[in-house]
Design goal:
382 residues; 36% helix; 6 helices; alpha/beta
Length: 382
């Protein structure tokens, strides 16, 4: 008997925890039950013949009884040997599994250490190592994703510094962050070899100056862009083109700030998810929803502040989604979310392709900067 069998505390995760004697007894009972069942079925198939007693035992009968006894003993010994072999094999597999888990944990530690290195090239290698580990370790995939997202939440200046040396360092760090986002986005595509769809993504407080989520699908899990700063230093830096905000997806742009650059949701499909821009601030970026299809689900702009820049809905179709810029009452927690505040900038819906299910504004007077389709009055809208 191995030390692990003698001391259950030494048994690795997944190993057999029954005492050896109990295991053998259970297998013997099952074997006897199976034998009796088979004999009973054979007896019934033969028409339940009567057992006839032919008199005193003959020498041949004694030899037959001895053979049967020896066969039974051999069978019991075989059962014991099989049980011991099975337990040994099971214990070996459990030990290998423990060693494999140990290797994965060591790889996690090494990748995390690389992400914290001073050299950008080492941090870059750490991003790939962590993403590869997430692919191979489904039990802890969320933890690996959390580490990658956590890296993006580390402080980072949205504006390039004036000093040449600092600017080079800023650009290298930006490239590492873009790589992290690229790896995450690649795993959210429908044809990704290993899908991360349905997992939580937490970008709370991150600074995004360049990201390409083109064609991904947000479904299941929570995707948090809460208090995220979108500050592209050029055009077409933040791209959500052709993204599908699908059923059971929850995407939060709550309290996010769209400061500069271009943030594109062109041809995005809102097909059942819950997307909120509540209390977001549009303070200078161009946010484009061109040709977006708002088919189902909810898209909320409650409490959003439009003070600069432009939000463009040219070619968008408002078919079935609940799009709310208005005041929202939450009786369950006895508070009210204020309507969107238009103090500058432009929210252009004048060229919407389909306005049959228009957004809710709850306003009687069209605020400056809000452009509606020709012939549409704000008082006619919900």
């Amino acid at each position: 008997m191995t030390a692990a069998e003698q001391n259950p505390n030494l048994v690795p995760r997944g190993a057999m925890r029954w005492p050896l004697g109990l295991h053998i007894a259970v297998v013997l009972v099952l074997a006897v039950a199976a034998a009796i069942t088979v004999l009973g079925l054979l007896w019934l198939m033969l028409g339940a013949p009567q057992v006839q007693v032919s008199g005193p035992l003959k020498p041949g009968d004694t030899y037959d009884a001895i053979k049967i006894a020896l066969a039974v003993v051999a069978g019991v010994g075989g059962v014991v040997a099989l049980v011991v072999a099975y337990r040994r094999q099971h214990l070996s597999e459990a030990t290998e599994l423990r060693e494999y888990d140990k290797t994965l944990i060591e790889r996690f530690g090494a990748a995390a250490e690389q992400l914290g290195a001073d050299q950008p090239a080492v941090r870059m290698a750490g991003t790939y190592a962590m993403a590869r580990l997430a692919d191979e370790w489904p039990q802890e995939r969320q933890m690996c994703i959390d580490v990658l997202c956590g890296y993006l939440r580390m402080p980072h200046s949205p504006d390039p510094p004036a000093d040449e040396g600092a600017l080079a360092s800023w650009r290298r760090e930006r490239e590492v962050r873009v790589t992290v986002l690229r790896l995450i986005a690649a795993h959210l595509l429908d044809d990704a070899p290993v899908s991360w769809q349905g997992h939580d993504l937490d970008f709370t407080g991150a600074v995004l100056v360049e990201a390409d989520f083109r064609g991904v699908r947000f479904t299941g899990g929570d995707v948090l862009f809460v208090k995220t700063l979108f500050a592209g230093d050029g055009t077409d830096q933040i791209i959500f083109d052709e993204v599908n905000f699908a059923e059971n997806g929850h995407v939060y742009f709550r309290l996010a700030e769209f400061r500069s650059g271009t943030v594109r949701f062109n041809r995005a499909t809102f097909s059942g998810g819950w997307v909120t821009f509540d209390h977001a601030r549009f303070t200078g970026a161009r946010v484009s929803f061109r040709d977006a299809a708002l088919i189902a689900g909810e898209v909320l702009f409650e409490g959003a502040e439009f003070s600069d820049g432009i939000v463009d809905f040219t070619g968008a179709t408002f078919i079935g989604s609940t799009v709310n810029f208005g005041e929202h009452h939450l009786p369950s927690i006895y508070r009210t979310v204020p309507p969107a505040h238009f103090s500058g900038g432009v929210v252009d819906m004048s060229q919407a392709a389909d306005f049959r299910h228009p957004p809710k504004f709850g306003l009687q007077v069209t605020p400056s900067g809000l452009r509606l389709p020709s012939g549409t009055s704000i008082s006619d809208l919900p």
